[in-house]
């Protein structure tokens, strides 16, 4: 067979039945071979970035490897954001890119790009094929690498001349990679040390991340939590690995986690990090993070252990097996919980610091996004639905209020925070889980980044539902500008948004817009009951903020905007900058131009630049114009300056 046919045969040998992609000149022979496949269905995206996000959503929702096929040059470079998103969240992908013929590589040939070099920092591994005989072995290795150990994207770059060369096809049964041996079995001595630490702890906390879902360790996690009565907090990517209805579930932790879960992490004496990486969005100010806690860190990637927080008990191995070992040892020893006071304290905090309280009315009569999320959550079957989010305020509201009982039922971009991810990922999840209700929660800014994929859903009959929390601004950045930048809303207001209902109609979707609270409930019912794709545009105020919040650079327990029912159900620790403030002084404006160095770094003792010097130094950027008089301090002004 030809090299192109060998590529398709390799995918079929791996059991692939779904490929997302976009054709082009250097991949045309591969697409011609794909035409004859009776096993593989191809989903034509409307943009290569959309194709990668669709494969990513498919992989996260199903646990299978997502496959992407695109052409060279701009086709390949359009995949970069999607590859980076998958890499940051450890999602298994195999991305096949066309490339110019081998003899033209390095000559700046038409539609040539060094995609292997471009993606080197954001792939688990990559190949630039040089020999047609290497195709079967390369694909066998790529799928093995992508799906084993810590999963991640693997790129295969295929020079187009290889597609025409002939090969006697034989697919290898085994992989021989001496340098790649993920450690699945945790060290027995370290497991013993973890058991001892758990038995001694009086304020333990289980901190579960995306690795717990990848490992399939939900049952083992629940067993450990129940056996020793250990409360559980989850990361954004780990949501669903521990049932929301379980009394030990403390929910989200970190920048927009609850105050009670953040207090739990801060006051704990033992953190069992289960497939979590101590992201800065979780730890807050690292030097003040969990100051009293020992850390048991379990991760299959040895590079993660100790990277951010020192682990007193590091365990490299597959989480499912390690937790099973810990559970077996605890059971053999007849270990029992000894943290009754801790559980009581956490219950008190949970009652005192709820996410939302009806007496808090910040909507001025408009739609309350928190209530919308609660209403949607109540209507979804936890076992029969998948919730996918875009990135922004709506993402955090969904994380806080959408209850999930099972793994792989909540999909969101965590490490990369990729706007434009959620909608195509929802299409991929819906195709991969045809029996489930798939709902994408989006913002008006994020949705527009890949709205062209509405055509992909319509043409393929994908009944994905999109709920837009539409505040006509880039909500999260707008919130930061309100809280930390004196309300200077620089380039975050989206006054020229399209009419999303008309846009949906143009793609043959059903859609509606609601703007009053009493309209939401029935609109949600119509959306969920629709047979095909449906868009619900929900108008909310751009002044709505996501609370609680840990400000950048603050400690995890330094929470603003948390509701405290002990003082009358009001938001506490609200920043002064949320209120109107006087205009900054001329010196402060100059400082801002130089990164705010004088306000943010007290250890910097270099001589301070005067305002007039700053203005003069800025002159080249204004093509030799005179310094703005408003930038010159009167104390610096001298005759002749």
Task: Give a brief rundown of this model.
The protein has 641 residues and is of the alpha/beta class. A six-stranded parallel sheet has the order 2-1-3-4-6-5, with helices on both faces. It has a six-stranded parallel sheet with strand order 9-8-7-10-11-12, with helices on both faces. Strands 14-13-15-16-18-17 form a six-stranded parallel sheet, sandwiched between helices. Helix 3 (48-62) crosses helix 17 (422-432) and helix 10 (218-228) runs parallel beside helix 13.
Structure report:
The chain is an alpha/beta fold and 641 residues long. The chain is 35% helix and 16% strand. The protein is built from 25 helices and 22 strands. The strands form 5 sheets. Strands 2-1-3-4-6-5 form a 6-stranded parallel beta sheet, with helices on both faces. Strands 9-8-7-10-11-12 form a 6-stranded parallel beta sheet, with helices on both faces. β19 (549-550) and β20 form a beta hairpin. α3 packs parallel to α5 (80-88). The longest helix is centred in the first third of the chain and has 15 residues, at 48-62. The chain starts with a helix and ends in a 23-residue tail after the last helix. Residues 579-585, 592-602 and 608-641 have low confidence and may be disordered.
